[in-house]
What we know:
The structure holds two protein chains of two kinds. Chain A is mainly beta. In chain A, 10% of the residues lie in helices and 40% in strands. Chain A folds into two domains: 26-167, Immunoglobulin-like, CATH 2.60.40.420; 177-316, Sandwich (Immunoglobulin-like). Chain A has four helices and 21 strands. In chain A, the strands form four sheets. In chain A, strands 1, 2, 3, 5, 7 and 11 form a six-stranded mixed sheet that branches. A six-stranded mixed sheet of chain A has the order 12-10-14-19-16-17, with no helix packed on it. In chain A, strands 13-21-20-15-18 form a five-stranded mixed sheet. In chain A, a hairpin with a 2-residue loop joins strand 2 (50-65) and strand 3. The longest helix of chain A is centred in the N-terminal third of the chain and has 18 residues, at 2-19. Helices cover 50% and strands 0% of the residues of chain B. Chain B has helices at 2-27, 36-41, 47-54, 64-75, 81-84, 113-116, 119-128, 143-155. In chain B, helix 4 (64-75) packs across helix 8 (143-155) and helix 7 (119-128) packs across helix 8. The interface between A and B is medium-sized, with 17 and 16 residues. Copper (II) ion binds next to loops of chain A.
Amino acid sequence: MAKKYFFGVMLLIGAMIIGTPTGSDAADEVAKLTTAPEVPPAITRPGGANVTVELETTEVKGQLADGVEYTYWTFGGTVPGPMIRVKVGDNITFTLKNSDASKNPHSIDLHAVTGPGGGAKATLTLPGGKTGFFFKALNPGLYVYHCAAPHIPTHIANGMYGLILVDPEKGLPKVDKEYYIVQGDFYTTGNTGEKGAQGFSVEKARAEQPTYVKFNPMATPGNLKAKVGEKVRLYVGNGGPNLTSAFHVIGEIFDTVYQLGAVGSDPAKNVQTTLIPPGGAAIVDFKVDVPGNYILVDHAIFRAIDKGAVGILEVAGPDVPNVFKPLKTGGADAGH
Amino acid sequence: MITKTWTRRAFITALVAIPLFFLILQYVDITPVYSADEQALKPRVPADKLAEVQSLKSPIVASEKTISTGKAIFHGKGVCVNCHGEAGNGKGPIANSFDHHPRDFTDTDDIGWQKARTDGEIFWAISKGTEYGMIPYEDMLSEDERWALVAYIRSLENSVVANHK
Ligand SMILES: [Cu+2]
């Protein structure tokens, strides 16, 4: 009898220990990471949570264009790397793993970090290794992260970058659709369009003459989608390494732009094209009023038409002729 | 007569040459220009730490065993080969990315790098990295592992692996 009781009491104590919160009243959570163009959900809780973020660096084969194979160096196996979303005031425990299949040491410099190297020295990691550091997200905004292992430009040119969004305390204004896009310039040993496995040309990279310029070159394929009347928000980054993007969406006007990702500044209104420097970002909002395909480009237009810097936003819905309609006057025999 | 002409010639030459010399000086950068070899030999350790680092002694004895430990790290988890090459001759797959090429430990070119460095300086470069692209390993490899690498690098001097082919 007594033995049975003892057992029960032990169980109860055990359950209490496991169930007890760890003392801090802040929530503990694991950041939800997403593959481009998906964006993690907005954070509705107050800032100050303890958040863990873990990324793994890998070196993987992928496509750069039709029939053009390239070995990307990545965060999380994609280019851009996963999007991270936290809130201002959050306490972040960051872990970087380097896959044991990697040939290179890798590291991470997050522009959202206030501290030496943005974490780069603390996270220099050999293949098969694991490192980490702690930081507090002091400033809201949209920030680039990238690898900072020597030779840094080579690591960035091979695709090692992504975005981290630090939501402001009150959050960003609500929209209907959010997407994540990062531009990068690439330097292959062969000419643009040359098929087969392509190596990295450090000579072309030094000369800043890319053979490809791409949005989300190794992420979830497919078009961005929205419905007529919806508000769309794009989180756009530029990994570089070299080119400054003249980001534009053909047939749209950005109603609101947080230029340079500067959340907290007065946003710009009614912008046609926004500049995004390497290692920089922008948040653009616009309402889609008319159905059709809207093409995202770097408006330094050779890069779009000849080197691949295009993306498509598909807007579905009924025609809205009071905003836009083609006039049926065309054809060679028009006017006859 | 002869001496007089000579003095005059010398005087005129000097009159032209001296101002010309100073004129040229203005346009010529007289800071020393290093050749690639001299550049490789220049100490990597900052001047104020050089003496101390140069006198560092390895706590491990270089033996076949420590050399093979170093070799395993060089070709394995240290990924040194990716930059310094399988043969340690500085011709790894990504060596080209660096303006200052990864060091050739075999001294194939007889530039005398092995002689120019003490063990302490090699240990320091592996630990702290250099401003020209060598990666700092002090947080990634133990002290013993780094000294084993020094022993292995020393064993590569004049190694015939892939040299003079
Ligand atoms: Cu890297």
